[in-house]
């Protein structure tokens, strides 16, 4: 009865979803691609899969960019474990879908996740008939989970995490969510704390396999390029990594001068240059490294233009990564603020930066993944809100790879202190690389677990 009411509401919401997609598509055209797939109608053929011949169809759902990157790590291990597998990759966002295209091989397929109506989910399962399904991290959909159980599709939640806040939400809607968690054939949690919360939410077969993101290997070419750019600049770089809305404003406010410069000193400068130098001098302690380049990498690409406009409006000389190729032009090297408006280049940015402030942690959003920064040898400063990656943050802090600060102002001050302390900064760099290496192995363990879910003929 409860799921029937939920299904009716999801069915009634379909026109609202179409309107939302049109609105999002105006800024991100990817949302206008193959819209009917979201409602269970497919022109993409089912991959030529045959579990009895060792070619199982493995369905992985990675809703957005971060989940798709985690899926890429798992997929590499899966192709080694199941060399004949075919991949069915689904997403919910345009950035996830764009990132996922690079993961496809001949014989694979990529479509949108079906909207969680019974009709759309049944259409999806009837059309593709996956041999096993893997949902990445947090994706729980009542109809999807229930229909997979009804149709005999073993469904697992991989790299699973559940914050205390999300658990409270799941418990409030326990009449709907407990059956959804219980319908999962397996749950592979990142940490013991996540496993405990997932069990309390209703999951049954819960195992701790670790965090897939520790198995990511930074792109060597990007690492080399970032270091080359740092040498070319000849000045330190402070990065706001994977920034969320509102954090860029805080960051720019914190690197501005809190008080005007004395007229006699300001007279030697002119216009915007004077303002920028005054701001930098207030942010960098006496005796520290040369004035830093401030690098902002927004989390969501639809905000690239907005963040660039924000920095420009405040009088900063701004350069955008999208405007050049392999080497920054001279005018970019002279800029005050860089906007990292490219996708798939985080390793480049982390290797370029001397220190990174962790986006999502300076607003109550739970923080972003700091593991990639550590693996690239970039010291991390975390704000107070890291509940989405609580254990990773605690372990990184204990290992000396990250430090916690109470707010953005303290983060900028701590970053400037690190610029002036080579020994402390080098120690954090080394600790980050060691920390990332010490926790690897989740990808192989998860690939083995996926193989164990397949029917005997697929093994």
From TrEMBL:
Listed under catalytic activity are: lipid IVA (E. coli) + CMP-3-deoxy-beta-D-manno-octulosonate = alpha-Kdo-(2->6)-lipid IVA (E. coli) + CMP + H(+)
EC number of this enzyme: 2.4.99.12
List the Gene3D superfamilies: 3-Deoxy-D-manno-octulosonic-acid transferase, N-terminal domain (3.40.50.11720), Glycogen Phosphorylase B (3.40.50.2000)
Q: Which GO terms describe its molecular function?
A: transferase activity
Q: Which domain of life is it from?
A: Bacteria
UniProt function note: Involved in lipopolysaccharide (LPS) biosynthesis. Catalyzes the transfer of 3-deoxy-D-manno-octulosonate (Kdo) residue(s) from CMP-Kdo to lipid IV(A), the tetraacyldisaccharide-1,4'-bisphosphate precursor of lipid A.
Quote the protein name from its UniProt record.
3-deoxy-D-manno-octulosonic acid transferase
């Amino acid at each position: 009865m409860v799921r029937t009411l939920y299904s009716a509401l999801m069915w009634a919401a379909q026109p609202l979803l179409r309107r939302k997609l049109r609105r999002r598509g105006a800024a991100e055209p990817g949302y206008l691609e193959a819209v009917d797939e979201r409602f269970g109608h497919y022109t993409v053929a089912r991959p030529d899969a045959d579990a009895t011949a060792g070619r199982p169809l493995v369905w992985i759902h990675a809703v957005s960019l971060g989940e798709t990157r985690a899926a890429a790590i798992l997929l590499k291990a899966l192709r080694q474990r199941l060399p004949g597998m075919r991949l069915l990759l689904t997403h919910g966002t345009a950035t996830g879908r764009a990132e996922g295209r690079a993961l496809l091989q001949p014989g694979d397929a990529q479509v949108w996740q079906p909207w969680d109506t019974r009709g759309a989910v049944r259409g999806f399962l009837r059309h593709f008939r996956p041999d096993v399904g893997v949902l990445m991290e947090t994706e729980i959909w009542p109809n999807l989970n229930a229909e997979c159980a009804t149709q005999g599709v073993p469904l697992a939640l991989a790299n699973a995490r559940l914050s205390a806040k999300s658990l409270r939400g799941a418990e409030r809607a326990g009449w709907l969510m407990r059956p959804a968690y219980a319908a999962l054939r397996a749950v592979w949690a990142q940490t013991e704390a996540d496993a405990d919360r997932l069990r309390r939410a209703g999951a049954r077969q819960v195992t701790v396999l670790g965090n897939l993101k520790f198995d990511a290997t930074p792109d060597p070419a990007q690492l080399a390029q970032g270091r080359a750019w740092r040498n070319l600049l000849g000045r330190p770089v402070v990065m706001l990594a994977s920034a969320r809305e509102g954090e860029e404003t805080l960051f720019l406010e914190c690197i501005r001068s809190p008080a005007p410069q004395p007229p006699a000193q300001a007279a030697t400068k002119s216009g915007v240059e004077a303002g920028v130098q005054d701001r930098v001098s207030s942010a960098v302690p006496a005796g520290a490294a040369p004035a830093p380049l401030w690098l902002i990498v927004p989390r969501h690409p639809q905000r690239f233009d907005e963040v660039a406009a924000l920095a420009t409006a405040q009088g900063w000389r701004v350069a955008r990564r999208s405007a050049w190729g392999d080497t920054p032009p001279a005018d970019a090297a002279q800029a005050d603020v860089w906007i990292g408006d490219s996708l798939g280049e985080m390793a480049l940015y982390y290797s370029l930066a001397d220190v990174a402030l962790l986006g999502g942690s300076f607003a109550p959003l739970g923080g972003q993944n700091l593991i990639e920064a550590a693996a690239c040898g970039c010291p991390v400063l975390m704000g107070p809100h890291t509940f989405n990656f609580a254990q990773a943050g605690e372990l990184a802090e204990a290992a000396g790879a990250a430090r916690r600060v109470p707010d953005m102002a303290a983060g900028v001050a701590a970053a400037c202190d690190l610029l002036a302390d080579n020994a402390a900064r080098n120690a954090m760099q080394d600790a980050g690389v060691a920390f990332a290496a010490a926790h690897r192995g989740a990808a192989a363990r998860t690939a083995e677990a996926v193989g164990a879910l397949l029917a005997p003929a697929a093994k």
